[in-house]
Amino acid sequence: MAAKIQKVCYLIFLVIGILYLLGSLLLPIGALATPKGGLFPLLVAIFLIGMSTALIAGFVKGSPVAVEAVEDFPEGKDRHRVLAVAIALILYALLLKPIGYLLSTVGLMGAIVHLLGLRGWIRVALAAILTGVLSYCLFALILDVPLPRGEVFP
Amino acid sequence: MDALQGIVNGFSVALTATNILMCFLGCLLGTIVGVLPGLGPVGAMALLIPSTYILGPTSAMIMLSGIFYGAMYGGSTTSILLNVPGEAASVVTAIDGHQMARRGRAGAALTIAAFGSFIAGTLGIVALMFFAPPLAALALSFGAPEYFSLALLGLIFLSQLGGGSPLKAYLMAGFGLLLGTIGTDLMSGLTRFTFGNVDLSQGIELVPVAMGLYGISEVLLIAERITGIPQVIKVKLRELFPTAVEWRRSTAPIIRGGFVGFVMGLIPGPAAILSTFIAYALEKRISKHPEEFGKGAIEGVAGPESANNAATAGSMVPLLALGIPFAPPTAMLMSALTIHGVQPGPLFMKQCPDIFWGVIASMYIGNVVLLILNLPLVSVFASIMRIPQHLLMGMILVLCLVGSFSINNSFLDVYILVAMGLGGYVLRKLKFDMAPLILGLVLGPMIEKTFRQALYMARGDLWLLLQRPITATLLASGVAVILLSAYLRRRRSRK
After folding, report:
1. Could you tell me which residues come within 8 angstroms of residue B425 by beta carbon, excluding any fewer than 6 positions away?
2. Phi, psi of A61 (to 5 degrees)
3. Residue contact B178–A109, C-beta within 8 A
């Protein structure tokens, strides 16, 4: 499983390198004596493509620089837990703008403390509300740090 | 301004009430971060950079530096008491330190680790004080080609010496450089890879990237394996005193560890970690009782713990004297300086003597603070491990999210934070080193600027650049390191 993900990861970097190369070719490159803004990205793109290609080739050949012992990804319940935390984070990022800091943080904290082992809905709700409200008071009211207010629920 | 006059001035800056408080706070936070496995000084510094906006640059640097060297002290506590290294630089300490703890000598191991850290850390700062000014003076003669080759050498060393696959490390460095090119090209005003997004035209900030890679990904790693509260070996105050024999056996390793650490700190790469392995190997090799190593030899605690503290002082030299960070923690310090509108470089010492000498002086104070904090309060710090993970991770998440948003009041930084967190989790599982990515992002704009300036200077003639002795030496060193590493790797795989 991890080995497959490793290969996919190298391929993703190769694709990123190719897209970046195409993007850099759209920029003015200039000449060696008069380099323009596209030259350095072009060189970085070539480097990225070179490294990811070398890793893919090494992976196919079974070279130790490409097929390192990697950590296994979690299975079963553990995998579901990690995925749930990841989804909670993505939802948080998406909801932060429309519903603002306070509501989204309370929601995220509720999900995180529950997923990481806190049991009992009252305790979870208490921990989430306290974290959200106390952090809002600390940052927005005491330290005067501007926090997102939300478009739908300001 | 000579070094002695400078340090006197530095103490007058560092001994103000605000700066003493910031130094104490940095050391305290550093110790806590060092005790807790996972987050590390880079993640903690990333978390706290936004909160330094309300401070001046000197106070901000004093606090953030305190986290950097404070983490080295804290890391030993859990290594010795729990066999859980709080920091990568304390992995070696766990080998003999925990064995000592199991034999009832935890107090002695902790005291030697703390005193070793204090002595070597202080010696390292003395060396930093006398080493940085002449290096800064020498760097005044550096032009764009020298800076380009030096920054490139830093990336090469870090990628080669990280310990894992160098190809993977180079891929990460390349990705960091890619991220560094996003935004407005400062030399021509051209916007690159922004897809019309105004926020992106300012470039990718280091803080959300570092918080994502080190903070958010850590939360995901913790989510994999929910563990119970560990049992901590309790240490009483009267048990902290080592015997005369233990003191005698530790003295020389502390001095040697300090020397190894400082020298390693000057070299680009993960100095704090590497120096501990070298110091341990050195002590084992020259010991009259090498068979005791791994079973509770005090030299195995004294040498590495001294080395990682001296390495933090050594790694400040390239940052303060040249304005080039060679490791992620110093990259965070440079980022903090830049956010506060201060440009590090060879003129930094002359233009900002208060920050330069103030930070160095605060490191002396910080080492004393850490010694006082770490010995009597060792059990208190070890009990931090008893805070439930869900609360700790929740707090880290809130700090990451607020910290990222508050840099530019931009939702884009929150998206970058989450994306880097998720990507960082997968990459860390696949044994990609995050340090080259961070350094690539920080050094990328500088490498590009100096590369283009060097090409302009040489009118495109690369051979002309290689005729400059410092440039040629630095680039040749980079090539030599790559070839030597490839040779050693091949020889090892043949065996």
Report:
1. A82, A86, B216, B217, B220, B221
2. -80, -10
3. no
